[in-house]
What does this fold into?
Amino acid sequence: KAGVTQTPRYLIKTRGQQVTLSCSPISGHRSVSWYQQTPGQGLQFLFEYFSETQRNKGNFPGRFSGRQFSNSRSEMNVSTLELGDSALYLCASSLQGSANTEAFFGQGTRLTVV
Amino acid sequence: AQSVAQPEDQVNVAEGNPLTVKCTYSVSGNPYLFWYVQYPNRGLQFLLKYITGDNLVKGSYGFEAEFNKSQTSFHLKKPSALVSDSALYFCAVRDMGGGSNYKLTFGKGTLLTVNP
It folds into this structure.
C-alpha cells in the first residue's frame, strides 16, 4: 500500500507570492491533517479535513487555507508569503481521524521563502 | 488545553545500553498518547500508541513505552540501543475528552544520539 505522498518535496518562493502544496493520503483514509514544522516552534497543527469538511483549525492567520477533494486528496494554500513561513509542511492521514488512531505522515514539503 | 513536555532536548547513549526518552503530558480528560520518530529530511514515522489497557505498550523496532497516570508520563524505552536508532523523537497526545478536537499536540522533540 502506498504511503502518504506530498508534492512537491521542495519549493523556493519569494515574499508576497502564494503557494499550493498537495497531499495524497493512504488509499481509503478519509482524514487529512496538516502540520508546520520549524526549528523554533516545533510541530504546530494547521487544520484537519474529513470527508471534504474542515473539522478543526489551528492558530494560524487566514493566509493559511486548505481544502479536501472527494477522493480525499488535500491541498493547502499560503498566500502573501512571509519569510517566517519557511518551514517543513507535513501532511498526515488516518482512516477515520478518530482520536485513538495513529496518523501516518508524508515526507513533507520543504518551503523556503526568500 | 492539552500539552506535552519532553524535558530533554538531547539524549546520548552508548550502543547496547538501554535508552529512555522522557515525556510528560497534560490533558483535561484521559489521554491518547503516541510516539513518533523522524529521520533527517523525512516525515514522522509512527512507533507506538497508548489507548487503554496495559500500561506497557510495545511498538516497532523493539521500542516500548510505559504509561504512568499518576505521574502523567509516557516514557519511551528500548533495552539495547542501536546506532541506527539515532533520530529525533516526538511524543504526542490527544485528549480523549476533546470532543471534536482531532489535533495531535506534539512535544518539542528529543534528539537521540547512539554512540558506537
About this structure: Residues 35 and 45 of chain A are 5 Å apart (CA to CA).
